[in-house]
């Protein structure tokens, strides 16, 4: 893979946007890998993507030796670096391929790499969970002797603020008759992955976390043959924010990537928070709140100050900012969290805008939600309709007018006061109370809030995504070329992140 971001100017000598250059190089590298694989296939039909008997994968910059796990029957590679550590001056810059190393020593890939710095949502007394900025690693699970198998790439959830790639994919691989190669990836989180402002855009990139993921997908395209995977049969999958990332890759570059990075996708409970443009007032205010928490100025040019700070200071600043949010939140209408924005480079539209155009990457989609998505994220103190309305206006939907709030209440009818002593039980889906009124977690106005949150954040995005992949729209391909399937997991309790995901 050629180094990305090898040039920083365009022909007229003016500065190039780092993210635009990254996307251009990403497309060129993935296209080159695809064409090279096609040429090899044409020259030698017997050539296959297969593991070396030594289980050593030579990446040009490092060599990693996998191992056989006798308890699972799979070959495993852990802690495979896919990009240069984004520390110091490389913070908030696009991911870059490590420089080539001749005769690189073989590294035993038996341990997971460090997790990325974490930014947890606010819950009472939740601790700081430290991480390591040198965290851009992949992990592989493959049947012995795998050759030309489909590839499943797992993108972890966690609200773009927490999580890691240490999920053991052995069970799902074995449950499917060892029929694919599984990959898990890590990407920058919290302020390290999603710091936003006009200054960050000018000096580096916003949405660094989603660019890490895209870079990893291009890496898989280039190198998965050495692990026994077929680069033309890649499925990306995730749950919650991982599914939200699947959604963002589906709309990336206005849906013009086709099957370049992946062919199929699976999205479980896709998480869709508010999406602003990178330079709007709220992201900019968030930028300065983070700067101030890190001991830098609260206005003006602060990028150089932030880059100079040590990782512990920045991790504590990220924690401090996110811990100012309301119960269960990373994001609100104040500068207290970090998540994807419209960057005009990789994410050029809001998903709702992109879905309407029907310009979507990939060909096939499985998407769905769980029956009780919202319970973990809604305060337990909502007992009256006034409580509910105040929560909607201040935390959940602060940009809506009172008339719009009333419309939401009208389509989610419930006059009951929350009864903290019960009853709590699932509805039967046919008669009696509905999920707007009752569940195993709550009743009355509390349950009403849970249902509104669930539909706005997870359920409706899942339906929109399914519709975009199953309908013909302006500029979209013929309906027969794309297919979507929708599911709902309802086995009680079926909470967010439950077994259905």
- Let me know the number of strands: 12
- Radius of gyration (CA) equals 23 Å
Widest sheet: strand ordering: 3-4-6-8-7-9-10-11-12
Taking the sheet with the most strands, its summary is: 9 strands, mixed
Judging from the principal axes of the Cα atoms, what is the shape?
globular
Give the terminus-to-terminus CA distance. Answer: 34 Å
Question: Regions with pLDDT < 50 over 5+ consecutive residues?
Answer: 1-14, 330-336, 473-480
* Mean pLDDT rating: 90
SSE ordering: HEEEEEEEHEHHHEHEHHHHEHHHE
| Individual helix count | 13
Domain Carboxylesterase type B: 68-490
Enzyme class: hydrolase
Keywords: Hydrolase
Family: Belongs to the type-B carboxylesterase/lipase family.
Summarize it:
The protein is an alpha/beta fold and 501 residues long. It is built from 13 helices and twelve strands. The chain has helices spanning 18-43, 170-175, 190-194, 198-203, 208-223, 241-251, 281-293, 303-308, 311-322, 351-357, 385-396, 402-411, 444-470; strands at residues 56-58, 63-65, 67-69, 74-81, 106-108, 137-142, 149-155, 181-185, 229-239, 264-268, 364-370, 483-489.
């Amino acid at each position: 893979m050629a180094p990305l971001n090898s040039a920083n100017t365009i022909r007229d000598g003016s500065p190039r946007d780092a993210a635009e250059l990254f996307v251009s190089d990403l497309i060129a590298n993935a296209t080159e890998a695809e064409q090279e694989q096609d040429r090899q296939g044409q020259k030698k039909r017997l050539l296959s993507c297969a593991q070396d008997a030594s289980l050593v994968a030579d990446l040009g910059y490092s060599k990693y030796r996998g191992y056989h796990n006798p308890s699972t029957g799979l070959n495993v590679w852990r802690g495979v670096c896919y990009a240069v550590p984004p520390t110091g001056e490389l913070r908030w810059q696009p991911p870059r391929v490590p420089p080539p190393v001749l005769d690189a020593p073989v590294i035993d890939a038996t341990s997971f790499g460090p997790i990325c710095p974490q930014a947890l949502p606010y819950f009472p007394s939740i601790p700081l969970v430290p991480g390591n900025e040198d965290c851009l690693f992949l992990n592989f699970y493959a049947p012995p002797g795998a050759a030309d198998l489909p590839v499943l790439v797992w993108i972890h959830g966690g609200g773009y603020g927490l999580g890691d790639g240490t999920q053991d994919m052995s069970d799902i691989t074995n449950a499917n008759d060892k029929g694919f190669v599984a990959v898990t990836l890590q990407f920058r989180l919290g302020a390290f992955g999603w710091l936003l402002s006009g200054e960050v855009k000018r000096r580096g990139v916003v949405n660094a976390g989603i660019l890490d993921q895209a870079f990893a997908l291009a890496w898989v395209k280039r190198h998965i043959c050495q692990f026994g995977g077929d680069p033309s049969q890649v499925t990306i999958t995730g749950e919650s924010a991982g599914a939200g990332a699947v959604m963002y890759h589906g709309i990336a570059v206005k849906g013009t990537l086709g099957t370049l990075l992946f062919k199929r996708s699976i999205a479980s409970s896709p998480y869709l928070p508010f999406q602003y443009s990178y330079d709007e007032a709220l992201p900019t205010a968030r930028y300065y709140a983070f700067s101030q928490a890190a001991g830098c100025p609260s206005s003006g040019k602060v990028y150089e100050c932030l880059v100079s700070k040590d990782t512990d200071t920045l991790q504590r600043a990220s924690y401090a900012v996110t811990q100012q949010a309301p119960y269960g939140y990373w994001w609100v209408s104040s500068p207290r969290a970090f998540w994807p924005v419209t960057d005009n480079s990789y994410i050029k539209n809001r998903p709702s805008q992109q879905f309407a155009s029907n310009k979507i990457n990939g060909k096939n989609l499985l998407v769905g939600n769980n029956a009780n998505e919202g319970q973990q994220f809604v305060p337990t103190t909502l007992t009256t309709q006034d409580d509910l309305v105040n929560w909607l206006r201040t935390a959940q939907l602060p940009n809506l007018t009172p008339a719009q709030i009333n419309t939401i209440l009208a389509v989610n009818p419930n006059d009951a006061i929350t009864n903290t002593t019960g009853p709590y039980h699932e509805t039967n889906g046919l008669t009696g109370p509905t999920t707007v009124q009752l569940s195993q977690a709550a009743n009355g106005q509390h349950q009403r809030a849970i249902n509104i949150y669930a539909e706005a954040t997870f359920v409706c995005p899942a339906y929109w995504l399914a519709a975009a992949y199953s309908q013909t729209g302006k500029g979209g391909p013929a309906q027969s070329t794309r297919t979507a399937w929708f599911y709902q997991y309802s086995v009680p309790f079926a909470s967010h992140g439950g077994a259905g995901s």
